[in-house]
Here is the input.
Amino acid sequence: MTKIFHYRRALLLVGVASLGMVVGALLLASILAGDIYDYQDTVDGVHLPQVDAISVLAGGKGRISAAGDLWYRYWEMAHRPPVAGVVRPEKVPVLYVSGMGHQANWNVFARQIRRGVLEVIHPDDVILERESANTEENAEWLVKYAKREQWKRVLLITSSYHMKRSRQVLEKVLRATNTPLEIETLSIFQDPFEPAEWRSSLNGYRITLFEYLKGVYYKYFWTP
Here is the structure.
């Protein structure tokens, strides 16, 4: 009887210790999770670099719409009358939409684009990538298209909470495939996913925490 008592007590202590370690790890992660917002975009949204493609990662609210608006700005710059001192883009970049799902088509895409953009954008201006289902596959398919289309520079668009990991994953795939693709980035900011806002809601807290944990995995353990 005494042995059983000590055995159960040992199990209880191990359980309590394990629970404490898990809680402690989650608490530490919740303190460090804001690190995902510690990222500086290469593009400020005002001065637009010449790129071959605008690559937007589908999955976050407003991303495709924002990418369509950005594409429209390039289109406007290319079609307006020449202005002294203003450099016009050599060409309008392709709008590459990553991870729209197998059932995606032009109509699905068009519902997420403003009417003014739809008046000038055509299917030939857009690539709808339907194969990828996560950030890792987004990167792998983007590199495949970049090689096929011989892109030299792309502008990556995704949510602010997602950008740091997206770029890390993409750069790993580029190194693994020896692909010389230059990456520019522009984050889409969404409430409550901002450095000072994410703790203000359960959803912001949850997504930020999980994004941080995924970022740790992809940075230190994942290899393409």
